[in-house]
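Researcher: Sequence recovery benchmark, item below. Answer with residues only.
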């Protein structure tokens, strides 16, 4: 019964051993070069040139190491998932694994609560630019829970462990004729991350953020006890946006809906932020909105809005487009053709390929790792190896590369009320000029007596009322001259607080603790943490995501 678990650990060790020398080598070289330039007084221009060269040479590592290792890892993971589903009883093993987590938490209590706790998952495994330095000084608990536990087709409830990723969900649900109402696009994203943080997808204007499709959570509390909570429990509402600072998440129950074979996908070019906002608002607030709604702005005058609906039929004259075939242009570049030709279009896309449309190119971040990725010959010869795993990309980062990306790369989501859509796009253009700008709709709900981190939207009066929001996501190098990360991000954060918006905290926040608490409602969060001992057991969520408050040598 332990065979596949041991094999999995061996694979992780092998990957780490293969990539660690590369990472250590770069870190050692970077440190030595820094010392040399300081001693010789050549730091300045030569240092900037060194950082530039080091960053751009990552393409060599990504191409020859990260891409092949990512492919092997994904093949192994699919084999493991198939083996578990066919030959092992996941629910029974789940109970055993959870008891080990409980035992570890009780050990922390027995030792006198020496420091705060966190999961033992390495920081480089997260799909986030954060490196999670706090894990080096806190009491770690191994919460490796990676299996799909059950699907009740009558109640349409899927039960999974928190480390199950989107790829596993696709492999499991689609052959059974189901899907998640909100299914984010990247294969590496985990259900636990989408719950403890936040998750959004192009159907969120109908169903809300990812936590809205959750029915129940299984949790290990700070005293080591195990509980199952639903929306009737106040503890349930403190888990989203908590970043694992209330309890350890061990299982999630999710709603599922019937899936279709395809989506009918429409492309509509727009030529200004105002035109984009007007059409978007009409679609998102329609009495019969499309099942999926998404937008790209390629600059302040060129963009495309895309609407899609489930379908099981291909009619005469329909164009079937297998957009994820390895040799084809990446989805965001395919959508750009409708803008350049200034024409609307419609095509049929297989549902699985629609869900994975941003996966090959990691939205558009791949072009910053492998500049030749758009070359047709590259895609034809090597496209089947894509995408490189984000976790492995982080593993080979040197301190110089990390610093360079923090100062010259933006990964932030800005969630604002729909009425502020044009305004936030204007501000993103002024402060960041990061393109493409990704647009995704969603709802923010009034949760009644148990309101979590997101405040009850203005104008809502009772549980179930909602307000339409839009997420403007900036991913890429800024186009603003003399860009200053802190100044620009702070300007957007200040704006969000002013208009009742939120920052998607998978990246760093540059806010002070007081500003962060002004943006997010901590009333229920503080109450529940104090009631269950989370204020002693875990750091605050702010401490995990704040750029200015990362642990270095001690817990505080």
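Model:
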């Amino acid at each position: 019964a332990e065979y596949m678990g041991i094999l999995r650990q061996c694979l992780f060790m092998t990957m780490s051993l293969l990539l660690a020398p590369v990472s250590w080598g770069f870190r050692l070289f970077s440190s030595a070069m820094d010392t040399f330039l300081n001693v010789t007084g050549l730091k300045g221009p030569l240092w900037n040139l060194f950082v530039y060269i080091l960053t751009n040479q990552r393409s060599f590592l990504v191409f020859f190491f990260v891409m092949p290792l990512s492919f092997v890892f994904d093949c192994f993971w699919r084999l493991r998932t198939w083996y578990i589903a066919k030959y092992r009883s996941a629910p029974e093993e789940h109970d055993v694994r959870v008891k080990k987590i409980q035992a570890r938490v009780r050990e922390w209590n027995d030792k006198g609560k020496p420091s705060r706790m966190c999961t033992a998952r390495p920081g480089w495994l997260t799909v986030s630019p954060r490196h999670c330095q706090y894990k080096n000084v806190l009491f770690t608990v191994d919460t490796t829970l990676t299996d799909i536990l059950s699907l009740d087709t009558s109640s349409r409830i899927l039960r999974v462990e928190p480390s199950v990723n989107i790829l596993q969900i696709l492999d499991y649900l689609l052959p059974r004729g189901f899907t998640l109402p909100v299914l984010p696009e990247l294969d590496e994203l985990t259900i636990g991350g989408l719950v403890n943080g936040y998750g959004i997808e192009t159907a969120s204007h109908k169903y809300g953020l990812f936590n809205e499709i959750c029915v129940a959570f299984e949790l290990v509390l700070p005293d080591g006890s195990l509980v199952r909570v639903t929306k009737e429990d106040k503890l349930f509402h403190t888990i989203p946006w908590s970043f694992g600072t209330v309890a350890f998440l061990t299982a999630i129950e999710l709603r599922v809906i019937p899936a279709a074979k395809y989506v009918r996908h429409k492309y509509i070019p727009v030529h200004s932020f105002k035109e984009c906002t007007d059409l978007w608002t009409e679609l998102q607030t329609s009495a019969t909105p499309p099942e999926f709604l998404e937008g790209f702005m390629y600059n302040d005058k060129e963009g495309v809005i895309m609407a899609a609906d489930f379908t099981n039929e291909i009619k005469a004259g329909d164009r079937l487009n297998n957009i994820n075939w390895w040799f084809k242009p990446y989805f965001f570049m395919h959508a750009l053709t409708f803008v350049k030709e200034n024409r609307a279009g419609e095509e049929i896309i297989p549902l699985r390929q629609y869900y994975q449309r941003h996966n090959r190119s990691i939205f558009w971040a791949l072009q910053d790792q492998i500049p030749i990725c758009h070359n047709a010959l590259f895609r034809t010869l090597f496209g089947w190896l894509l995408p490189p795993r984000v976790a492995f990309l982080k593993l080979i980062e040197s301190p110089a590369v990390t610093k360079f990306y923090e100062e010259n790369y933006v990964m932030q989501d800005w969630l604002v009320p729909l009425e502020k859509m044009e305004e936030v796009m204007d501000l993103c253009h002024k402060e960041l000029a990061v393109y493409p700008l990704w647009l995704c709709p969603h709802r923010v709900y009034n949760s009644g007596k148990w309101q979590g981190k997101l405040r009850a939207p203005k104008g809502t009066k009772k549980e179930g009322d909602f307000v339409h929001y839009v997420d403007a996501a900036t991913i890429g190098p800024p186009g603003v001259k003399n860009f200053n990360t802190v100044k620009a991000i702070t300007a957007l954060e200040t704006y969000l607080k002013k208009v009742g918006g939120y920052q998607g905290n998978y990246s760093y926040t540059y806010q002070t603790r007081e500003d962060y608490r002004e943006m997010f409602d901590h009333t229920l969060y503080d109450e529940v943490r104090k009631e269950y001992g989370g204020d002693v057991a875990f750091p605050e969520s702010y401490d995990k995501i704040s750029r200015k408050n990362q642990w270095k040598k001690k817990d505080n």
